[in-house]
Amino acid sequence: AEAGEEHYNLLEGVEWDSLRGMLKGEGMALDTVSPAVFPETTGRGLVFARDVAASEPVVAIPRALLFTVEATYTSTLHPVFEQLGLDDDTRLLLFLMHEKFQPVEKSSCGGRWAPFIHLLPAAYSTLFFWTMDELAELQGSRLLGEAMDQ
User: Fold this and answer.
1) pLDDT tens for residues 73-94?
2) What is the tens place of the pLDDT at every residue in 37-49?
């Protein structure tokens, strides 16, 4: 890579093909960007697939594709969540865990989110997941404040 350019690998394979089908099926245009992995810096992200005009939208995500608490409302788990009086964060966390570990045929929403969930990273390295001892090693640096703000 030239100075200032990052090395990346385009995301490919069966999982991406499945997610691409889901996205296109919901009307998302995928001609301006491609998913990529940036192994030396940020991990996953998007790269331009073609030149884009200054006034052209880069990406538009239909609301139906947003993984939000509203997605749990059509789930078979919704009555249980309501009965337990769960807050939105807990509801979304439990829904995600349930969908991740269920076979598609036993999914609470027919496997709708499977293409997305299968592409989630297995682990994260953000400061949010560090222990207090690990964060203490940042004492005196600006990174500690940034970590605490996450």
Assistant:
1) 988 899 999 999 999 999 999 9
2) 887 777 778 888 8
Contact (Cβ atoms closer than 8 angstroms) between residue 110 and residue 99:
no
Spatial distance between the Cα atoms of 71 and 107, rounded to a whole number of angstroms: 13
Measured CA to CA, the distance from residue 93 to residue 68 in angstroms comes to: 10
Distance CA(137)–CA(134), nearest Å, equals 5
Residues 25, 115: Cα–Cα separation, whole Å: 12
Strands 9-10 and 43-48: unpaired
What average pLDDT is seen over the chain? 82
User: How far, in Å, are 26, 92, 116, 127 from residue 62 at the CA level?
Assistant: 7, 19, 15, 30
